[in-house]
Design a protein that fits this description.
This protein has 2 domains: 175 residues, Rossmann fold (3-Layer(aba) Sandwich); 197 residues, Dehydroquinate synthase-like, alpha domain, CATH 1.20.1090. 48% of the residues lie in helices and 12% in strands. It contains 14 helices and 8 strands. The strands form 2 sheets. Strands 1-8-5-4-2-3 form a 6-stranded parallel β-sheet, with helices on both faces. A two-stranded antiparallel ribbon has the order 6-7. Helix 7 runs antiparallel to helix 8, helix 9 crosses helix 13 and helix 13 packs across helix 14. Bound molecules: NADP nicotinamide-adenine-dinucleotide phosphate and fe (iii) ion.
Length: 388
């Protein structure tokens, strides 16, 4: 096996890293847009910190696009891209959770090329000339979960078709990630748990899937160890800065891991859930599905699941991976069934069909490759009823 490793993102990590944004932005131009969510960056003061730092370093014109919604939709990307083109913006700053960062990165691709965001889903590398200029993106996460600040993915929903799709391209990396744990202290315990569980699932799926990368798996291992120890602390003590720093670090490590190794069936099954039910946060869907998919998988990669169990503080046995997840989810107070979060039983067929239509190409990297669609339907059904 040959492992490769490449991450073209400069990272600043630490308390008050946000104050660096003006200095960093100056490298890229004088006119910036800040792409952010509707409320949280104003409420927690992170937007003001960014604006002050930009002003101090002579970024004379700053536009704000603050319409990004959780589980962002195509309109968010296309509208912000139009603004960037019309206003001849030099650089893009994504500030917020994974939704704002994913939009900021996709806006760079769409505004620097032609078309809509859908033209860049499954866009093959090298299929056209790389543009000589791709607007630089600075990502400033305010959650500790997605790892979007260091990876090449943007997850965007088509609200008409109710499809959540992934732009995955080397032009979609940000140039700089500014990771400041102080920006995450305003997260509620619940949001901390939800986003932290996303990071854990990235680490779990990148470690156990069949992509295999000796270098990048170490990032998954380290992330799992940190999250097992520090996520419950961050949930119970929102102002514990060490816990916030460890979670920001772990989310970044897990983001680097999925950039190299991808995810697997837990994510594949989650995407149709939050596409049809946008009120269900990505991390909530993952937490509901993770025990069921892990039970389905663990016999097929016993060594990796034993390692996962051990890193979670359990005996090093594959089936303990399931127990460790169930108990962790319980500790975090996350929902346990699809029924609990308002998924309708009659939608399970449609969710299954969407997995088949949109993501069956990903089955091959899952530890156990699903052969029949019934297997997917049964996983949804079990997660709906709570039959583990
Ligand atoms: P999010 O959808 O970005 O944000 C969820 C909620 O948290 C929003 O209401 C947001 O408010 C609020 N929020 C954000 N930061 C906060 C803070 N510091 N304090 C208080 N509230 C805060 O959540 P996320 O889990 O980070 O991102 C989820 C999205 O990322 C999903 O679409 C998922 O599919 C995608 N994702 C991407 C990747 C990737 O590799 N790129 C990986 C996994 C998931 P406002 O809207 O008001 O800001
Ligand atoms: Fe995720």
């Amino acid at each position: 096996m040959v492992s490769n490793f490449y991450i073209p993102v400069e990272v600043f990590l630490g308390e008050n890293a946000t104050l660096k944004v003006g200095e960093v932005a100056r490298r890229f131009g004088f006119k910036a847009v800040v792409i952010t969510g509707k409320k949280s960056s104003k409420e927690n003061g992170s937007l003001q910190k960014v604006l002050d730092s930009l002003k101090k370093h002579g970024i004379s014109e700053v536009l704000i696009y603050d319409e990004v919604e959780p589980n962002p939709i195509d309109r968010n990307v296309n509208d912000a891209a139009r603004l960037v083109v019309e206003e001849k913006v030099d650089l893009i700053i994504g500030l917020g959770g994974g939704s704002a960062l994913d939009v900021a990165k996709a806006v760079s691709i769409v505004s620097s090329n032609e078309g809509s965001v859908w033209d860049y889903v499954k866009y093959p590398e090298g299929a056209r000339l790389v543009p000589f200029y791709n607007r630089p993106v600075i990502c400033i996460p305010t959650t500790s979960g997605t790892g979007s600040e260091v990876d090449r993915y943007s997850v965007v929903t088509n609200p008409i078709r109710k499809e959540k799709l992934v732009v995955s391209h080397s032009l979609n990396y940000p140039k700089v990630a500014i990771i400041d744990p102080l920006n995450t202290t305003s997260m509620s315990p619940y949001l901390t748990a939800v986003t932290g569980f996303d990071a854990l699932t990235h680490a779990l799926e990148s470690l156990t899937n069949r992509a295999d990368n000796f270098i990048a798996e170490e990032y998954s291992v380290k992330a799992i160890r940190i999250i097992a120890k520090w996520l419950p602390v961050a949930v119970n003590e929102p102002d514990n800065l060490e816990a916030r720093k460890q979670m920001s670090y772990a989310a970044m490590l897990a983001g680097i891991a999925i950039d190299h190794l991808g995810v697997a069936l837990i994510h594949t099954l989650e995407h149709p859930v939050s596409a049809h039910y946008p009120h269900v946060a990505h991390g909530v869907g993952l937490a509901i599905l993770a025990p069921y998919v892990t039970k389905y998988n663990y016999e097929y990669r016993k060594d990796k699941y034993s390692l996962f169990a051990e890193l979670m503080g359990y005996p090093s046995e594959p089936h303990k991976a399931v127990d460790s997840l169930v108990e962790f989810i319980d500790t975090l107070g996350l929902p346990k069934t699809l029924k609990d979060v308002g998924v309708e039983k009659e939608k399970l067929d449609r969710l299954t069909e969407d997995v088949y239509m949109l993501s069956r190409h990903s089955f091959i990297v899952n530890p156990r490759e699903p052969k029949e669609l019934d297997e997917i339907r049964e996983l949804y059904e079990s997660a709906y009823e709570g039959n583990l």
